[in-house]
Write a structure and sequence with these properties.
The protein has about 400 residues and is α/β, with parallel strands linked by helices. The protein contains 16 helices and 12 strands.
Length: about 400
Amino acid sequence: MLPLYLVSKQTFKQSMDLFHRTIAKYFPDRTLELDILVAICASFFIRDISQPMALFLLGNPSSGKSTLLEIIKELPVILWRDNLTSAALLSAAPNIEPEDQLLHQLEGKVLTIPELAPHANNAQAKQIMPDFTRLLDGNAFVRHTGNGVIGTTEAQRFNMLGAMVRVSPKLWELFGNMGPRLVFLRLPDRKQSLDQTVTRLTKLSSKRSYTEKLEVARKIVLAFYENIAKYYPDGVTWNKEEDDKETVQKIAKLAVLVTKMRAIIPKENRQYVGNPQVEDPTRIYMTLLGICKCVAFIRGRTHISAEELAIAYRIAIDSVPEGRSGVLLALIDNDGTISTKEYAKITGASRGTVYTRFDEMVRLGICEYTTQASKTKPADAIQLTENWMWMSEEDSPLDG
């Protein structure tokens, strides 16, 4: 690796290659996730993107959420906030200057909250999240108070990153009511045998420490970002005529999938009633498309190629309730059809839980039953409907 003092003198391609090689060396199991985070930070260089993007990392403790955010922490666009209240966004208190309020600090920044759960699950969530919903629509934000009108009449161009362990059912309902403006990225746990874990741990003493690797990664990411600013000081215009048309169409289909699978199915007395409440897919489509553009940009292109479809797939699957995405992944792995017995064996879930999940997928219009129910036996197998069977094709980006 080049000495860090020479990194800033590289060409854009050299800087890009060094960035990817370094992350692959020190954090090999998180390269794609870091690509996405850095890409979102670089979105301000793409003049055609105006809608704010919000992505939250999901994962168990030690899955790498904090590490990923720490690596990008020193980028000039990062607005890091460990704590947040609804009053911090916009307050009518007479002793607070506008520039001290979060709302007036967002323009051109990536608001980063390393632990979102306390804010999303506490009593203020019903106030905080709708406020950010308004802002994430790219709209102005004005509030009428006893002290007059406060806020801004201009749309804010900003992005939002956060991390939390999981999204609870109640929180999914809150997000569902907010509409499809937020996307997620699940960080899987490391699956290693005892011998593999012991080998990994014993090598720690002979290699760079975690702190050293983190510091190197920070500097490489910062140098890469600075080179983007150096080579594209006026930003870039997207070459949409060169976008891979089939990939863009599939991204649009994935946007529809997310809105369907995140829909709330009304219940009364624990029984489903009425049709699922499905939001318009426009916002989630623009978010998926925007992130794919950003990733393509930091890979050296100003058009979307088939390579970016894997990004859209990953985010789409990770952005729906885990129970529903689990059924979808099982269907994709089984050529689009699966029985309750097979799914119960794969997941260890009770037969009752499996029947409930299958019923949801049918009600959402993603699947259909392949057998008829009887008075004594419910339908016990589902398959993807014709509209979604393409996801189980052999060349799906989800394979492998």
